[in-house]
Amino acid sequence: MKKNIFIGGAWPYANNSLHVGHLAALLPADVIARYYRIHGDNVIYVSGTDSHGTPITVRAKKENVSPESIAKKYHEEFVKNFNDLDFSYDLYTNTMTEYHAEHVREYLLKMFKNGYIYEKEELQDFCPVCNTFLSDREIIGTCPHCHGVAKGDQCDNCLATLSAKEVLDKKCSICGSETIEKPNKHLYFALSKFQDKIKKLTDEHSNIWRYNAVNETYKFLDMGLIDRAVTRQLDWGIDVPFDNYQDKKIYVWIEAVLGYLTAGNKVADEKGIDFKEFIKSGNVTSYYVHGKDNIPFHTVIYPSLIMAINDNINLPDHIISSEYVNMNNEKMSKSKGNLISINELVSLYDKDSIRYNILANGPENKDTNFSTEDFIQNHNKFLVGVLGNFVNRNLSFLNKKFEGKIAEGKIDENIKNLTINCYEVIGNLIEKGKIKLAIEKAFDYVSEGNRYYSDRKPWEQVNNDIEEFNNTTYTCIYMMANMANLLYPFIPSTCEKIKEKLGLTYNPSWSEATISGPLQVKNCDILFARIQ
Q1: Of 27, 115, 170, 338, which is least packed with CB atoms within 10 Å of its CB?
Q2: Torsions phi, psi of 28, nearest 5?
Q3: Is the pLDDT of residue 143 over 70?
Q4: DSSP label at 179?
Q5: pLDDT in tens, 204-262
Q6: Which of 315, 232, 261 lies closest to 100, judged by CA?
Q7: Which secondary structure element, helix H or strand E, spans residue 61, and what is its range?
Q8: What CA–CA distance (Å, rounded) separates 45 from 22?
Q9: CB atoms within 10 A of CB 166
């Protein structure tokens, strides 16, 4: 029976280029989506560019351009990055679309009707020099918990979620002046009402979510959930669907995370699917894939919003939250310039080499360190030396001895059993979000192919026992056809090349690939060139 699978990849923020850390956090979602599709399930896989918020407006003011121009520039760059690396989104959108805005306003009205949105007037930070109320991201100060540098909504050091009231020694991030407080009216979301429900959700998923997601969520719960402002004093964003709020916009934290639902709904519309039925609790298995710094938005805020909407929407089943990718043993950071951008990577290396390296060395359970030297070594060792070697040594020999003609033979029963077992083992690992171990197991299968070829010594069999040579060769070709399935979620472009070399139809599925009759090698071009 087909399953409904919903996959949400984190929405990158449109204020700078994407780097390796983003890729490590987002690429596992594509693996999961590709796997479930060829498994035969119904998949909706979405993401988009987070295009509103204070950092964009602050940058726009400094550069004397519109916030929209900055958001559009980076959205287009992100789309190109994802296309260059074969991401298979059903929809990669952005929060500037009217479709998104309209549905966000509908969800907000539902939350208000259900009693989770309320109005409150209180003192708000005001910059007397800029003569404007400050949003939380326009405030710089000191974290009350760790005393590190903090913005008005989060500490950059300990990652604690804050309210602007908690921050010490506050200054305006635009001009550096000390802030004062003046009364202002805003809408608030009653996040505090969901303390017990989020605790229950986390307890129920403590063996399913990633370890860091569970720990971070408990940390936030221990601090106590606090109500959060829904509106903010900005000109750039989504209009508020309530009277007397024309001077404010919907706060980006609430509208961006609701993008999973608006984008999913858009895909369902285009596919002729009833999204309410698809996403309903009990009907779907969901995956939310992102970096460690996005955990509370996916395990605390997003589930609370879903509960507040009260439409029986499925709560997150799997939280695939990566740790950090470091460079020079420091966290990659756009602000520090300590990073390698995706633009740089795709200009230097093959897209499947990038996908392989990021997935095989992903920061699933601990931080990893990125270096060009390691990247090249892994490429040469595994893509050239293991996968490329197995395919090329077989096909080159056949091309040299038999003009590429592959005679039918008997497939080794042990290899057949191993192959069938690989589908089960690797599939289970992908379904659990254990992508690093899954690709390792897939390459173990390729290594077994190399061992089998070496042990059987077809270069001797071809002279001594042609029947056994045909059996060896046919078994190896059978393994290649199955490698093109087993490796498809990870390095899809390479899998297509393997099928093309064998003259087989490129139609990946998550079941044993069979071959029959004589075949013809179409080309012997190497899969991967060695990087010097």
Answers
A1: 115
A2: -55, -30
A3: yes
A4: P
A5: 999 999 999 999 999 999 999 999 999 988 889 999 999 999 989 999 999 999 999 99
A6: 261
A7: helix 54-63
A8: 17
A9: 18
What length is written for the chain?
532
Between CA 377 and CA 348 the distance in angstroms is 15
Specify the pLDDT at position 337: 66
Q: Where are the alpha helices (DSSP H) in 272-350?
A: 275-278, 295-296, 302-309, 342-348
One-letter amino acid identity for 245? Answer: Y
Contact 485, 38 (CB under 8 A): yes
- 432-469, pLDDT tens digit by residue? 999 999 999 999 999 999 999 999 999 999 999 999 99
Burial degree of 453 (CB within 10 A; 0-12, 13-18, 19+) = buried
Model pLDDT for residues 168-195, shown as the tens digit of each residue: 999 998 888 999 999 999 999 999 999 9
Element (H, E) at 249: strand 249-250
Tokens 């969800």 belong to 107
Q: Report how far residue 472's alpha carbon sits from residue 452's, in angstroms, rounded to the nearest whole number.
A: 8
- Reading the block at residue 173, the tokens are 């991030």
Task: Please report where in the chains the tokens 């029959």 appear, as a residue.
Answer: 516
Closest by CA position to 153, among listed 52, 18, 252: 252
Strand intervals (E) in 41-155: 42-49, 91-94, 117-127, 132-133, 139-142, 149-151
Kindly state the average pLDDT of the residues 383-393: 97
Q: How far apart are CA 532 and CA 525, in angstroms?
A: 19
At residue 475, the 3 state secondary structure works out as helix
126 compared with 58, residue with greater pLDDT:
126
**How far is residue 354's CA from residue 491's CA, in Å, rounded to a whole number?**
9
* pLDDT, tens only, 269-288: 999 999 999 999 999 999 99
pLDDT, greater one: 507 or 137: 507
Of the candidates 303, 309, 283, the one whose C-alpha atom is nearest the C-alpha of residue 6 is 283
Higher pLDDT, 140 or 161: 140
Backbone angles phi, psi at 12, to 5 degrees: -65, 145
By the 10 Å C-beta count (0-12 exposed, 13-18 middle, 19+ buried), 282 is classed as exposed
